[in-house]
Amino acid sequence: MNAAEQANSIEFASKIAAVVGLFKAELPDLRADLKPWANDPDTRDWVDPDSIDLGFHFPGVSRLFQCRSLLVQIRLYTDSETEERRVIGLDLAGFDHRGKRWGLSTIDNWAFTGEVVPDPTCRERLRRCCRQVFALFNPPPI
Asked: What is the pLDDT of residues 90-121, one digit of tens each?
């Protein structure tokens, strides 16, 4: 679900803003998009209400990242007892004018897939962003 629609409390809006800050700290050229999904019936059928979806766009095609835009889908689980929302995984995808070029899922083995993948340093930067998102939403118990 678009991040803008998930920002339904100050606490959650703050976490979404922090995620944007994490990615922009690692990749300063990015421009954030809190509404990456179109608001049409076909798209709505595919939207996951238990996710936060953000888009990020480079100023042009990034040679190092092998894409023009990133889609970040943060998958959530809501604890029925505490109503606390926790991250269970992230899916990232890189796109250019030809469509999806590569993907990364933290749910599996954190490996990049696709016909092209980002440069090794860039892959590590994206993995670091993912680890920081986990830490933001799933702090260690006190």
From this structure: 999 999 999 999 999 998 799 999 999 999 99
Can you tell me which residue has the tokens 């962003």?
129
Residue indicated by tokens 């992230």: 90
Domains of the chain, by residue range, sit at 3-137
Q: 30 near 57, Cβ under 8 Å?
A: yes
User: Whole-prediction pTM value?
Assistant: 0.87
- Show the 3-state SS of 4-71: HHHCCCHHHHHHHHHHHHHHHHHCCCCEEECCCCCCCHHHHHHCCCCEEEEEEEEEEEECCCCEEEEE
